[in-house]
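DM from R.C. (forwarded with permission)

"hey, sorry to bug you on a friday — could you get me a structure for this? deadline for the figure draft is monday and I only need the backbone to look sensible"
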Amino acid sequence: MSDNIVIAHEVHKHYKMGKVLVLQALKGVSFNIKRGSFHAFVGESGCGKTTTLNIVGAISRPTSGYVTIDGQDISQLSDRKLSHFRNSYIGFIFQNFNLIDVYTAYENIAYPLHLAGIPRKKRAAVVMDILEKVGMEKYATHRPTELSGGQKQRVAIARALVNKPSLVLADEPTANLDSQTGEKILQLMVELNQKLGTTFIIATHSQRVMQYAQSITTLRDGSIVDNE
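My reply, with the result:
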């Protein structure tokens, strides 16, 4: 098993704007991400970090180049296989939480297990375990409208981890939180990264998030300008 869970080689991503104009979101980026690390893609808005995250997360395909996760070239997978791979290997944490308002915290976390065909009894044990890990077991029956921003993000983190993914991707996970709550969320993610060995990859422009990262890739105008 390679030390690198993610390998990207000469990844380009172009978006066609109208009939002629082409936007070059990524211009041949290459990077490796260590298994079990806490990695950050950083840069100003429009630098390409979210595009990079989406390609690593198998949400978007590169125009050229390739990305491998655990040795699997995800650009070669069919849409059906890519969807299965994404659900099995990758967890997502979003800036706006993306919780289902009519579901309780428990139901939001259980939903990926339901999609994966996990039986109800087994789902219950797994969901309660992850709720406890993120300190939300007392709020299992609360709906998102009854939770604070920090509590919603804890539920979102639990949902991202419930399938035991190899990789968790987070796009500006503290952007909609006050500084104190954001700090607690970051500490929680670092704690889970260390306890579970799950690789975390974060797209951010926050200096506070960068301080927690073990490695950093800096992007500017679709190109990598620094790897630390």
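R.C.: lifesaver. Residues 179-196 form the longest helix (18 residues).
me: no worries. DSSP finds seven helices and ten strands in the chain.
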